[in-house]
Design brief:
This protein is of the alpha+beta class and about 550 residues long. It contains 19 helices and 15 strands.
Length: about 550
């Protein structure tokens, strides 16, 4: 496209008297202003090299559809996750001066997504080699892959060796939950995590399955049991998914199973009517967190009198030993919710839309990042500090209050004291509180949890140099069969997003004595007119 710029340039004069005329009009010219002459400047051609590498001119025409498709691919490649096809159409039109159809924009987005996230079909095909490389890069890592009789993907499990070894230095509480995958082939990601001594997330194992079912949870827990054996001191914290409850009891019969107080508080509040549901949930969580049984019983009686419907729901559905801290038979420490897993779900909110291998890459990359971060933090702590920073900060905060408490010694050997107040007796006696804390809160335990290095899997283009065994490379894995939902089968004339059906006018039987001749024709013509008016309004 050519732009014509106009510039105002003063007329050139050789001397001060050149404008005077000899025809006697010189005096009149002297009284006039000098007029500026308008002259055209050289033509300027707009041909810009765009920031994303697209070299073209405005209103450019294309010979084939492939050229348009390639252009759309380049135009949306950097922002593929943010834009829908309609936004891409406007983006390409405004930025590149090209008008593309909806289908072209959609294909361009899909191509960009496949280029950046990875092709879903290729992810399943490379899965056996990827799991082999994950084990090779990280010693003691356990992976499992299950396909059906037609080689279609069914289950996948992996647990990094460094995480399983680090769990030995932690409190024996495992938090589990599942979250839905949003990719083309859907599925569910099962997650098992712990909490490190300084109260940070510590992932243990992951599995991609077809759903939160009895079979899938049993498969996941059976493999996890080979890494973390059943133990009476082991505690599981989950929501009340019936498959989890059943299979934890079957696979880990000795371990203790507790429920997430937050999920349970929401269920309790829903059971009530004509009350402030947030207040019900908050009161329940306060009751569940009581440390002393006498205080718990008093608080629970108040809760029962205030919200009898909630109390009836608890009596009918769940026992106190599953949610009350003071009644729980095991050691849950501060872990009474599945917040750790929910936080990891939030971190993976975007990657859960990816193909399988890119998603696993993000998971492994996050674990690498967290290990490196907390390893450095643990090494920065002064050597004389015994406890992890979180617990050390709590004691430092409580120390001024504890020093003022009155303490009476009852039994020195069994360490029984009578304290007038609610804080610890140890600090009020001037002793070192660190020596009375659980070893799980010691700095050396925190350091042991992160001492090993985790390595990500290199790009598949370099796998040949690692000499993957032929039996691994020859494995064939196809994507799983995804059954379409009923709402996916729509009639051809069904409206798309943003469209609406024209409402049919209700027809009423004619009144007694009403003429069905010309009146009906007139009413029909009026109806047509109103319909046209409606169409016009709809277009606008």
């Amino acid at each position: 496209m050519v732009w014509l710029e106009l510039a105002i340039v003063p007329q050139k004069q050789s001397d001060g008297y050149e404008h005077e005329k000899s025809n006697g009009e010189g005096d009149e010219m002297d009284d006039r202003e000098e007029l500026a002459a308008v002259t055209p400047v050289e033509e300027t051609v707009v041909n810009v090299e765009w920031d994303d590498g697209i070299d073209m001119r405005l209103n450019q025409e294309f010979a084939t559809k492939n050229e348009v498709r390639d252009l759309v691919d380049k135009g949306v490649h950097s922002n593929y996750g943010m834009y829908d096809p309609n936004t891409i159409i406007n983006l390409v039109k405004n930025k590149l001066g090209v008008k593309v159809s909806y289908s072209t924009a959609l294909r361009g987005k899909h191509q960009a997504v496949n280029d950046l996230r990875g092709n879903p079909e290729e992810s399943f095909a490379r899965l056996p080699s990827y799991l082999y490389m994950l084990e090779r890069m990280n010693h003691d890592t356990i992976t499992r892959l299950v396909v059906d009789e037609t080689n279609q993907f069914k289950y996948m499990f992996f647990a990094l060796g460094a995480c399983i070894e680090g769990f030995k230095a932690m409190r024996k509480v495992i938090i589990m939950d599942g979250t839905h995958l949003k990719g083309v082939y859907k599925g569910v990601l099962l997650i098992a995590t712990a909490q490190d001594p300084d109260h940070h997330h510590y992932p243990l194992a992951f599995a991609a399955v077809d759903g939160e079912k009895n079979v899938s949870w049993e498969w996941f827990l059976t493999i996890l049991k080979t890494l973390i054996p059943d133990d009476p001191q082991l505690v599981f914290c989950t929501d009340r998914n019936q498959s989890i409850i059943k299979k934890v009891h079957e696979v880990y019969p000795i371990a203790i199973h507790g429920y997430c107080d937050y999920h349970l508080s929401n269920n309790v509040s829903i059971a009530c009517s004509s009350v402030n549901k947030k207040g019900v949930a908050k009161k329940f969580r306060k009751t569940a967190g009581m440390y002393i049984e006498i205080e718990f019983r008093k608080c629970y009686n108040d809760f029962r009198s205030m919200y009898p419907q909630a109390a009836d729901y608890l009596d009918d559905s769940v026992h106190e030993t599953k949610w009350a801290r003071c009644k729980f038979p095991g050691e849950r420490y501060n872990i009474d919710t599945t917040n750790t897993v929910e936080s990891i779900n939030g971190v993976l909110k975007g990657p859960r839309k990816y193909a399988l291998l890119p998603m696993i890459d993000v998971v492994v990359g996050k674990i690498v990042e967290w290990f490196n971060k907390y390893r450095q933090l643990s090494l920065r702590v002064p050597e004389r500090q015994i406890l992890v920073p979180h617990v050390h900060g709590i004691l430092h905060h409580n120390y001024p209050k504890a020093k003022k408490l009155e303490v009476r010694e009852l039994n020195r050997f069994e360490r029984h004291y009578n304290v007038i107040g609610k804080d610890a007796a140890i600090m009020s006696r001037g002793e070192m509180a660190e020596h009375y804390c659980s070893r799980y809160y010691w700095m050396e335990q925190w350091t042991l949890a992160y001492y090993r290095t985790i390595y990500p899997v290199p790009h598949h283009s370099s796998w040949e140099s690692y000499r993957i065994p032929e039996e691994i490379r020859s494995q064939v894995v196809f994507p799983p069969y995804v059954e379409k939902k009923k709402e996916d089968y729509k009639l051809l004339d069904s409206q798309s997003a943003g469209e609406y059906r024209r409402k049919k006018k209700k027809s009423y039987p004619p009144l007694v004595g009403e003429n069905d001749g010309s009146d009906s024709d007139e009413s029909g013509s009026e109806g047509s007119g109103s319909a046209r008016s409606g169409d016009k309004g709809g277009d606008n």
